[in-house]
Amino acid sequence: MFVLVIIPSVKTLLRYPFILALVITQFILLTTSSARAGTLPEQAAMVSDEVMFDYFSWTIDAAWQKVQFSALGMPEYLTHEQQKMAVYDYIKVTRDIESAESELERIYSDPSIQDKDTATEELRNTLEDITRTQKKLAPIAETVVQSQVAAVVTDIGLTTGGQPIPAVLYHVSPLPLALIISPRDSILQEGNISLLPDLTVEQRDFLEDKVDEQLDVSSLIVPVGGIGAYPTMVMRTSDLRWMAEVVSHEWIHNFLTLRPLGIRYDTTPEMRTMNETTASIAGKEIGVQVIETYYPELLSREPSAPGLVSQKSQPVGPGGFRQPFDFREEMHETRVSVDQFLSEGKILEAENYMETRRQFFWDNGYPMRKLNQAYFAFYGAYADVPGGPAGEDPVGPAVRALREKSPSLSDFLYQISRMTSFEDLLAATGN
Question: What is the pTM of this model?
Fold first, then answer.
């Protein structure tokens, strides 16, 4: 991935220290992952080359928007209440967009409506209008949320010279899909390739089949909620609590990238899990503090965060009562069994078992398109909560144990960020 380097005028740099920080950060905040010639990721990238996401163009656009809006200094002239209302206005418009898109999908799926273009003309015009409004509101809403996350980060003590380094920057946009590559005989993420965000389900299936056949691997194209580029990328949502968490999560990745733990993100599966679990733990804690500080009225509401899977129903048990279905426990059991099959060299048995379990999850309200080695290689790294697709992987529990014994979030982050191996973590937790 490339990182844009923008060189504004010297006068602008001196007048707006924020812009100077952005330029400096863009020089040093480079990704640590790159495909070496002949590696599996490079081979997979060649297969998917036509639909790969263009990070360079995205970064140019996002960073330039940040520079331009920062130069205006608009949020500085707004009161705290006005800043809060600006965010709420953005959330409301986003919710209107989601509602309009949902209604469009319903109409185009309705077989009784013959002339769909005519039936949706007014709705499509409305959607265009509110989308334009959202684009006008987005820069100030993003700037406000950035400042709020930065203030919480500062209170926690994650600063250098009194400032969060790098500066908290994010931009909402359609996120690239992630093509995850794992060997078939083990659960191991050997590739994570960013693809265009608008690939259809048919296109995803076709590409996965092509990669699997040509490279004899397990692959899966998955959606993501955020990406730790710079500025970070965050998925559009009308759930402010989820947004605060993801913005915080991705900034933690930026924070770690400047330190030994983040620099070694791709060196081993254990280091990747340490990074992702750390970012998940810290992102949730910081996100909650943002809401408690600036939007306490949201704490009494049920979260509506977008999920990668959703429960549609629960099975009915004896007597007509619905039995609870524990997704994390069932997925944990699945992962443990798959690991056992693969350790015995029973690849086909493991794959047949995963397909049977996929249908089981589907029957219980969790519609997964595929369940394979790549699925576990990706989702198993997010081990901030016990159970789930991580199975018996000891890395997640060790990270959680370190957080529990740390007196504060900043102590936890500074300690784990200096680590260069899983053995360092085991030593810190007394294992």
Answer: 0.83
